[in-house]
Request: fold
Amino acid sequence: METPFTTFEPKIAVQPVRSLINYCERHGLARCALLQSVSVSEEQLNDSRLLINVQRYEALYAFACEALDEKLLGFKFGQVFESDRWGILGYIALTSQNIAEAMAAQYKYQSLSGNMGAPILIAHGDASTLQWVPAYNCSHHLPEQILSGLISLARTLTNTENFYPTRVFFTHKPQSNTSDYEAFFKCPVTFEAQFNGITMNNSELQVPIRKSDTELNKVLHLHGQSLLTQQTFNSPLEVIKDYVVKTLPDHVPEMEEVSDYLGLSVRSTQRKLQEYGTSFSQVLDAIRKELALTYLRQTHNSVLYVSERLGFSEQSAFQRAFKRWTGTTPRRYRVSVLEE
Reply:
């Protein structure tokens, strides 16, 4: 039996790791040094099923950022579109009818790309905001890579450079002049915001994709479902963790809901969790703890906002849980972060 699950360690699919290594190699860094920084072999790099601890991906960014003397590495890397970087999700997006359909597929098969964060689409009037909520205390490279990558993907899918959001938000401080970011996004960019995200007019989500292919898209969906089924069989705990991460910002998932997503009975799901020496309540509790620490380190998030994002019915319930996890209160923890 494996060690009981008491901590949450987010993972990322190998495809973006390989893509970042290739990008850095094209910019002059030695491939062997890049592989060493992320602790993977060439053979592992070509295993499309592999998920890597996201801290190793962060180590790759830290190494390459210093070696290239490039603080905007994630931002610039995201701008270079490569369908392989997105794995099966990239090919499904390329053949979808529109951006909205491509985003729905991203949500459905997200566990294939890891569980380092969750996308949340919030509609408000004639616009929608796609937030990316990190599942750990990430560097600025990850949200910059993801948001610039989404816009690069959208421009490639629609075959137009005129695809642009109405506003972009980052929780961190700018790493360069704001104008550098706005030149790419072609809209105002706000830093030290409450969330990482992009606001778009709803009409942009319905822009047709130039290589849309309904029949091929169906085949790719079947392949994606097959990969998800295989992942459920081989690594059920990873799929469960991903589902909890991407669902929590909207609502607290129940065991029945998770089991339905896995295509298993509740009893079978419980059995699989027991094989890992854990239970659904322990998994949920560990993920909530890690997310709470992540959100609170982004000091502009109010305690109420964090409580709601973690699905607590009342702020007092969140405070009790946080005290149980850490021995201190959310506000005192935040003060300790500011004093670091």
User: Anything to note?
Assistant: The first strand starts at residue 11 and ends at 13. Residues 214-234 form the longest helix (21 residues). The chain has a mean pLDDT of 88. Residues 236-338 form a domain with the Arc Repressor Mutant, subunit A fold (CATH 1.10.10.60).
